[in-house]
Amino acid sequence: MAVFNLKNREIECKIVYYGPGRSGKTTNLEYIFKTYKKQVADQMVTIDTEGDRTLFFDFLPMGLGKIKGCDVKVQLYTVPGQVQYSSTRKLVLKGADGIVFVADSFTIRREKNILSLKDLDQNLKECGLNIFKIPLILQYNKRDVGGSIPIMSIEMMQNDLNKQLKVPFFPASALTGEGVGSSLKECMKLTLVHLQKEFKWAQ
Fold it and tell me: Whole-model pTM?
């Protein structure tokens, strides 16, 4: 849940990048950190997990302007995708205001995408949140990879992941940056609309 500091007239919210292991969550934040340096207020913090380049979390504050006279800052986090880090995912999800779900377009990762989305749903419930109510974006990553590695069609991924949710989705390549900014922008937009309702009493 966003933190409202009345004294400093500041709203601090949290967006979490969620998805299966090696889907591109970290690469998303690395691209954002590199490309939007003027909006980055601090260094990116990385904690490596054993056996994978995914991390415990990335921390990336970004200034977003104002909501009814209040400065808005966004903290961007990733979660580790591996099954053994379930408790860490729950910890990072706690207090989330928006989510970017990064799905892997590789055909061989189809089941992992579905299981990760179910994991997100369950962990949100345990945090007192609802997957149908929280601002949520689906990003279909690795669309730039082709040739020898089969990738799923957007239609297949939509059917697997977005049939019930019906949330905005973006084809993307975290390596090239395609769709990365659009995914973040839309998630921030939905999150800010949600916050405006939450803090409608703020002047």
Answer: 0.90
